[in-house]
Design brief:
homodimer, 201 residues, Chalcone isomerase, five-stranded antiparallel sheet, three-stranded antiparallel sheet, 4 helices, 8 strands
């Protein structure tokens, strides 16, 4: 398993990666802040996602048992969603077509400046996206833009062998649709009120 | 030292608390998303700050030496700023009058759902604010809204003995004006480019 795959496995738990495999052309999502594509299904990497709605962050999250791969310097994962979809979720507890999640992975540091313990965020590592779009057969697709500072400006949806385990995990373990709302405290309350949590949550 | 003071000491490092002590009335900040006051200087607690610009988060940050007060269950600190001031900083590397920072403190958890290590965010603990407003003698004021779920809807600026050590620390240790830009990676790059970092950063 290469370094990138390790990181994916470690951090993908923040929203994980389930993956559309084949595509059909249909109506496009209409939000001004929704997904923008190149050549039909290549997602153009959003450059303004730091102005989007922040959902939560985690440090060193993993679904590996502790100790098997505990990093000396764990990474932060920050999750952002396009603002119009966030507002829609707060009203309905569901994600509208055209929702874009961004998982931003950053290095962490501890002793620096006046900080003596705990960890804070530093350099960008990579960006990944998860998009709800009815043009994809299962309604969702997942995109990797590679490692900073040489990220791709657009990415094809993941497909084939790269996504098999993701699909199973995201179908089984997510609290709302294909998203890990159990890790986003402000959304969890809304989903509970709206009755959109899956059974068991 | 009570629980609240301990928490303050532990988490205030994210942006720390320097404090205006006396006030004079002058022109008000004009941003639509800027500070709103009651009775002149009591800051009305913003209820929409989760739609503001996210700056960064830290876990268990402290300026105490490690081991002296390491919590078994460390808290996350999320920092948000009003969007118009964020856009202004990205252009100039400085904070305009009327800037509002929110520090949101949340509990953390580890083993839950499919997560087996690392930590993610859970319940809200408290909210604090730092405001740049030229009506305050040193240009900045700091506000505590108490503990969730019984937070105050407005708060007077900290003053007197509650803030003496904060003032010294914030004058000495902050990278840009009274703010810990060294812990906000996207802003740190901008301040470096614009030449607004204090000497030593």
């Amino acid at each position: 398993m290469d370094a990138h795959s390790m990181m994916m496995k470690r951090l993908a738990v923040v929203f994980g990666l389930a993956c559309g495999i084949t595509f059909s052309l249909g109506s496009r999502a209409q939000q001004a802040d929704g997904p923008r594509y190149m050549n039909g299904t290549s997602l153009i990497r959003p450059t303004d996602y730091r102005e989007w709605t922040f959902l939560s962050s985690g440090l060193g999250m993993t679904y590996e048992p502790p100790g098997s791969s505990s990093p000396a310097s764990p990474s932060f994962g920050n999750v952002f969603v396009n603002p119009s979809s966030s507002r829609s979720f707060m009203q309905t507890g569901r994600w509208p077509d055209g929702t874009v999640f961004i998982l931003e992975i950053r290095k962490s540091n501890s002793e620096a400046s006046i900080n003596k313990a705990g960890r804070f965020q530093t350099d960008l590592v990579s960006i990944e996206a998860e998009v709800k779009d009815s043009r994809f057969p299962d309604g969702w697709a997942f995109f990797l833009f590679g490692a900073a500072p040489s990220m791709r400006s657009a990415a094809e949806p993941l497909s084939g062998d790269r996504v098999t385990s993701c699909v199973e995990c995201h179908t089984k373990n997510t609290a709302v649709e294909r998203t890990f709302v159990q890790f986003y405290p402000t959304l969890l309350d809304v989903a509970r009120q709206k009755g959109t949590l899956k059974p068991g949550f």
